[in-house]
Automatic annotation (TrEMBL):
The protein, known as: AraC family transcriptional regulator
Basic and acidic residues bias (residue ranges): 7-20
Originating species: Marilutibacter aestuarii
Keywords: Transcription, Transcription regulation
Family annotation (InterPro entries): Homeodomain-like_sf (IPR009057), HTH_AraC (IPR018060), Tscrpt_reg_HTH_AraC_N (IPR009594)
Domain of life: Bacteria
Length: 315
């Protein structure tokens, strides 16, 4: 997938004073590299002082806005680039690889991530009625996509970040700011993909339900025909729609969830590779090691040690 930009009149450049203010506020609140929870729980601030080689992780439904620097995300065989002119929307839980492309100590990569509230999206759709059914310019079906930043969205994001300096106002005004942000995304050039997610009869909604089921049972054997029947779809339709939305098959999706969870168990809980592989559903340690290396680029023990060294360096 190529970089997608909107109309030139809507795009904001790096010289926009609102963007400079947003970058300054994030840099002041996130003074060291890493992901930083903010006083408003759905909002996370991210900073990095150097490019990286790509970090596999599981992306949750969210809006990701690069305020300074540039990043690319790979999901399946799709590649998306985003920067201060473009934002990333993740409408489904997806395993992906994120790589920071531009960052220096003097001009660090700065990003904010806002969790998407699908219930709020549904409420907005009910209030908007037919006006929310604007035709899409394009629809590749993928549950992760890039759209051009508009001035209205940038204004709303800046208002939310400003509230982080006002503890008294934050709990009262932040919900309204988040609502406006999600409204701007919903009514933007690719908001139709969020609409598909909450429409009960839509394929994207059924795929989202299938994803939820796989996440809850990732350590169990997956029978695609049984999953399809539970989603009221044929096995071939589920496979086709699942791959269109996630860029991978249900079995590939389950495998990536297993490997990500095993990685978390080794890194956070100190489990040995064989124990972590067994915990997530692998009966063969050699198969687990082989598939882990294929996804993360190194055998389990070596890869986790590298993460620990990097974390120690950041701290």
């Amino acid at each position: 997938m190529q970089l997608h930009t909107g109309h030139a009149s809507e795009a904001r450049t790096a010289g926009d004073p609102r963007q400079r203010e947003l970058a300054g506020r994030i840099a002041r609140l996130a003074t060291v590299d890493g992901a930083h929870p903010s006083p408003w729980a759905p909002l996370t601030l991210i900073r990095a002082s150097a490019p990286n080689q790509g970090l596999p992780s599981v992306y949750e439904p969210s809006l990701c806005v690069v305020v300074q620097g540039r990043k690319r995300t790979v999901v399946g065989d799709r590649v998306l680039h985003y920067d201060p002119l473009n934002y990333l929307v993740v409408s489904l839980t997806l395993p992906a690889v994120g790589q920071i492309l531009e960052a220096t100590p003097e001009q660090p990569y700065l990003c904010l991530r806002l969790a998407i509230d699908t219930e709020e999206i549904a409420r907005l759709l009910l209030e908007l009625g037919p006006s929310a059914s604007a035709p899409a310019d394009r629809d590749d079906g993928l549950g992760m996509y890039v759209a051009s930043m508009s001035g209205e969205l940038l204004d709303a994001l800046l208002r939310l970040v400003r509230l982080l300096d006002s503890p008294r106002d934050l709990p009262v005004l932040a919900p309204a700011a988040c609502r406006e942000i999600q409204y701007r995304v919903l009514m933007g050039e690719l908001g139709h993909q969020l609409r598909h997610l909450v429409v009960q009869e839509g394929h994207a909604h059924r795929v989202a339900r299938a994803i939820d089921w796989i996440r809850a049972h990732f350590d169990q054997a997956l029978r695609v025909d049984a999953l399809a029947e539970a989603m009221h779809m044929s096995a071939s339709s589920l496979h086709h729609q699942f791959k269109a939305v996630t860029a991978m098959s249900p079995l590939q999706f389950q495998k990536q969830l297993r490997l990500h969870e095993a990685r978390r168990l080794m890194f956070s809980e100190g489990l040995e590779a064989a124990a972590a592989g067994h915990r997530v559903g692998y009966g063969s340690p050699s198969q687990f090691s082989r598939e882990y290396r294929r996804l993360f680029g190194a055998p389990p023990r070596r890869e986790v040690r590298a993460i620990q060294r990097d974390a120690a360096g950041i701290g």
